[in-house]
Amino acid sequence: MSVRVIDLSFSYGSREILHNISFQIKKRNLVCLLGPNGVGKSTLFRNILGILSGYKGTILVNEQNTEGLSIEQMAKLIAYIPQSHETTFNFSVFDMVLMGTTSQTSLISIPGKKQRELVEAALERLGIGHLKNRGFAQISGGERQLTLIARALVQQTKVLIMDEPTANLDYGNQIRVLEQVKSLTEDGYTIIQATHQPDQAFLFADEVLALKDGKILAQGSPKEIITTDFINTLYDVTVDVQSLYDDQMRVCVPVTALRKR
Ligand SMILES: Nc1ncnc2c1ncn2[C@@H]1O[C@H](COP(=O)(O)OP(=O)(O)OP(=O)(O)O)[C@@H](O)[C@H]1O
Question: Is 17 in the pocket of ligand 1 (CB under 6 A)?
Fold first, then answer.
């Protein structure tokens, strides 16, 4: 198992967000974490990443208990990819990615040849080698997201956590970024990504993990889990789950919106 969470509970002050949750994620799987706004997806990620202290339970990454690990030790186990954002800093794409190698060097040492080669390889792997000298503030949202993924790859961990990697991206960039993300599982990466789009899970995920009321509502293959009842329970909206292309693909159609047309 790549990630194992056992009886995890977490509260902000007296408000409990996660209640006794347990799940495990297999190596080389892409898992979509679904759940309504404010349910605790980012809180779960912050617990797994070791950013929040004071949780109850056990978190194992690659069978290593993460409790008490330093930031440097955590960075060797797991990488976090935030949403791409507008930025006023204008580091080059190359330098942005190079920052991901700091877990292998001390903060004050200058990255060497090995680190620069890792950056070149990550940029090529994600098809953005041609952007390396461009400013991070002067590339598109999709290119910025791929740059942030490259920054995680040079960390040389095999477990990646992504917070809505396609938020703010246009449709074409959503698909391009997700195709790259999916292809990383073929290189041995395990990926947990939060998403608000169940259809993305049908297209790209090996598994769905759903959070509701501080608990795991369901875990399993997208076809097994994403049904009319599931979407209704999770998001309080009525959809019809349609099968397309001999059931190679399914999509959620919000039928209440159709009736109003
Ligand atoms: N630092 C904090 N202190 C107190 N409460 C917090 C803190 N961070 C988040 N919360 C609350 O905890 C709950 C879970 O927040 P979290 O950000 O984990 O949800 P989420 O599922 O990631 O939401 P979204 O889909 O909107 O990004 C929310 O009610 C939020 O307001």
Answer: yes
164 CA closest ligand 1 atom index: 27
ipTM above 0.95, yes or no: yes
In the chain the domains, ranked by start, together with CATH numbers, are 1-77+157-176+183-224 (3.40.50.300), 83-156 (no CATH)
Rounded CA-CA distance 258/261 in Å is 5
Angstrom CA distances, 152 to 108, 217, 240, stand at 20, 29, 37
pLDDT tens digits for 165-211?
A: 999 889 999 999 999 999 999 999 999 999 999 999 999 999 999 99
Would you call 84 exposed, middle or buried from its count of C-beta atoms within 10 A (0-12, 13-18, 19+)? buried
Q: Which amino acid is present at 17?
A: I
Please give the Cα distance from 50 to 167 (Å, whole number).
24
Q: Which pTM value belongs to this model?
A: 0.94
Element (H, E) at 120: helix 113-125
End-to-end CA distance of the chain: 47
205 is written with which tokens? 């995920």
CA of 46 to the centre of ligand 1 (A): 11
Is any ligand 1 atom within 6 A of the Cβ of residue 54? no
